[in-house]
TrEMBL record:
Residues 17-55 form the Transposase putative helix-turn-helix domain. It comes from the Bacteria. This is RNA-guided endonuclease InsQ/TnpB family protein. In the C-terminal section; belongs to the transposase 35 family. In the N-terminal section; belongs to the transposase 2 family. Keywords: DNA recombination, DNA-binding, Endonuclease, Hydrolase, Metal-binding, Nuclease, Transposition, Zinc. The keyword Transport does not apply. It comes from Lacticaseibacillus hegangensis.
Length: 424
């Protein structure tokens, strides 16, 4: 098997991501903010140059000044990191991470690539300034340091609770899982992201790569299951089991509404007194409170989804689910809040990557008629002078075979059948 130093990060067969909470000093917070602002500036410069180039190319008259400007922009876009830094000299300040600019440009190009491949993602837009901060840096290994590990790169672990980061220096962090810290010598660190969320908490996210699997695959038992995601319950599986919907967001809507009303009043007062919101202490204190409420709900939902997705993947060799497009479902304003609250897309994404980690199979199937089809005889409601089932009809009898169905259980069975047909 090839050693990690013989392969690039992309060529390594196994990848894993981990995020740790860090506790920077006041000076380190200043450096993180400067690098985050500079990263956003570089990204926005790329957006501005390409938009200007597109607009100039629409000019029908071959004006010399326009032709010259097009040539200048094209030349600058060949080496954007140098071109932007030459015009904006402050980007050469020693506070800035050299890899920060390169990663901002790479992210812009990745956004265009996603737009060309999946038009739903939208073309790159300007990044607005917000309460959040984020920038990316790369990890570099020296040839004389031997095999790349988590402890000998420019981004490296010093011990169980300390790491070092380019330009930032030594950072204390909450710690890594024991099993991950035990394998630092056969794992390397790739792209590293430093973030601050809306509540003021700082995190460092590592992209890890290795020639050995990060998770020991669970033993296979031949179990296969289909799951139907719905709003009545979070999900119903093909065995008839249901998982209740926790409704985390709905539980705090009253508290959140009161906090947001208070925030709105403080913003209005600050504007009346002609004070910038960034300097209005009462507004910032209330903004932090609102952000903490949102973050608490997000953490509760994520914990619930992690536990459920892990249990499904470990206990079943095949998990089949319907392919959902939340963006389309959210157009139904009567159900938009309930759909956003359950986190279906996040749940399906967790199932996908966990199935890969545990060497299991996860597939999504076309949801068309899964709720309208009788699993026993295949009759489809809405045909042969019958009406389609409405959302309010949770139980129904098949007009052909008279079989009584629980709507969600029947749908889960149909989803499993479709999944088995795909892999057959």
């Amino acid at each position: 098997m090839p050693t990690p130093n013989a392969l690039s990060m992309a060529e390594l067969p196994y990848h894993f991501g981990v995020r740790v909470r860090v506790y920077p000093s006041t000076e380190q917070k200043r450096l993180i903010k400067r690098n985050s602002d500079a990263s956003r500036f570089v990204y926005n410069e790329m957006v501005a140059m390409n938009r200007e180039l597109f607009a100039l190319r629409q000019t029908k008259c071959p004006i010399g000044l326009v032709i010259q400007r097009i040539a200048t922009l094209q030349e600058r876009l060949k080496r954007p990191a140098t071109g932007i830094s030459n015009i904006h000299g402050w980007l050469n300040h020693p506070d800035f991470d050299a890899d920060m600019k390169a990663n901002a440009i790479k992210n812009y190009r990745a956004a265009w690539k996603n737009f060309r491949q999946v038009h739903r993602s939208g073309f790159p837009q300007f990044h607005k300034r917000s309460a959040r901060q984020s920038y990316q840096t790369s990890n570099h290994y020296q040839a004389n340091k031997g095999q790349p590990t988590m402890t000998n790169g420019s981004v490296r672990l010093l011990d169980r609770h300390h790491l070092t980061l380019g330009k930032i220096g030594r950072l204390r962090f909450a710690g890594l899982p024991k099993w991950l810290f035990a394998r630092t010598e056969n794992t390397r660190i790739g792209t590293t992201t430093v973030t601050m969320d809306a509540t003021g908490a700082y995190f460092v996210s590592f992209q890890l790569g290795s020639t050995q699997p990060f998770v020991t695959p669970s033993s296979k038992n031949g179990s296969q299951i289909g799951i139907d995601l719905n709003l009545d319950n979070f999900l119903t599986d093909s065995n008839g089991n249901t998982v209740a919907n926790p409704h985390y967001y709905r539980q705090i809507t009253g508290k959140l509404a009161r906090a947001q009303h208070k925030l709105s009043r403080r913003a209005h007062r600050a504007k009346q007194e002609q004070r910038p919101l960034s300097q209005a202490k009462n507004y910032q204190r209330q903004r932090l409170l609102v952000a903490q409420i949102h973050q608490r709900v997000a953490n509760q939902r994520k914990n619930f989804l992690h536990q459920l997705s892990t249990a499904l993947v470990k206990n079943h060799d095949l998990v089949a689910a319907e392919e959902l497009r939340s963006k389309n479902l959210l157009k139904n304003h009567a159900l938009a809040m309930s759909i956003s609250d359950v986190g279906w897309r996040q749940f399906l994404a967790m199932l996908a990557y966990k199935a890969q980690l545990h060497d299991k199979r996860f597939i999504t199937v076309d949801p068309r008629n899964t709720t309208q089809t009788c699993h026993d005889c295949g009759f489809v409601m809405g045909t042969a002078d019958t009406r389609k089932l409405t959302l309010a009809q949770r139980e129904w009898d098949c007009p052909r075979c008279s079989q009584h169905h629980m709507r969600d259980w029947n749908a889960a069975q149909n989803i499993l059948s479709k999944g088995l047909a795909v892999i057959a």
